[in-house]
Specification:
Strand order of the largest sheet: 1-2
Number of domains: 1
Radius of gyration: 17 Å
CATH architecture: 3-Layer(aba) Sandwich
CATH topology: Rossmann fold
Structural class: mainly alpha
CATH class: Alpha Beta
Largest sheet: 2 strands, parallel
């Protein structure tokens, strides 16, 4: 939801060429990639898929294929630490930065938001700010990290998506971590999504 909202916002307001990158790192919710691709096709945005097979084979997390069961609960609950993929964002951001610098881009946009801070260390504002400084020093040409949602809640992001013209179709997004045919409605990602729709008084098109 977050990255899709940001992509729609940028296409609407930035008026510059956009490209999107998805990563297949062995996550159980690999289904998110096909949804991301369809969103990009609808917006006329070039979509790239980068495979990171070493993550699934070297790292340990309930979020990865072969890992423990995805726990139910809210992000603030301690058991959600099982879904942390160590240093995932740094790896993906480094690759996306290298691609951006290679193609003459001026910034990398990230959909991280305040709700991620509770459990994911590499989504914290301090981490993103530190990484931004490192990236700005990593090349001769100007290049930075743009993370406009990093202080926003899921509710605020959802409101932005609905205010766009046309509004984001959230029925064509995938949030659930469990990777089944239908969203579970009970994992941390589903819970946060459901609460956001409830708080703004809107019905989730995925039906939970």
């Amino acid at each position: 939801m977050d990255s899709v909202t940001l992509l729609h916002f940028l296409v609407k307001h930035r008026k510059c060429r956009m490209e999107a990158i998805s990563f297949d790192y062995g996550q159980k919710h690999v289904k998110e990639i096909s949804y991301a691709k369809k969103q990009c096709e609808a917006l006329g945005v070039q979509h790239h898929l980068v495979a990171l097979p070493f993550v699934g084979s070297l790292f340990s997390s309930a979020l990865l294929q072969g890992g423990e069961e995805i726990p139910d609960g809210h992000y603030e609950e301690g058991n959600m630490k099982q879904t942390v993929v160590p240093n995932r964002n740094m790896i993906m951001i480094a690759i996306a930065t290298g691609y951006g610098q290679s193609t003459g881009a001026s910034f990398l946009a990230l959909g991280v938001h305040a709700g991620d801070h509770a459990i994911y260390p590499d989504c914290r504002e301090e981490f993103i700010d530190a990484l931004r400084k490192a990236i700005e020093l990593s090349d001769w040409n100007p290049f930075t990290v743009f993370a406009p949602f990093q202080r926003m809640t899921k509710v605020e992001i959802l409101e932005i998506g609905f205010q766009l013209d046309p509004p984001v179709d959230y029925g064509k997004t995938w949030t659930c971590y469990k990777g089944k045919e239908e969203p579970c409605g009970t994992c941390g990602a589903c819970r946060e999504r459901g609460e956001a729709f409830e708080q703004i008084g809107a019905e989730d098109p995925q039906g939970f």
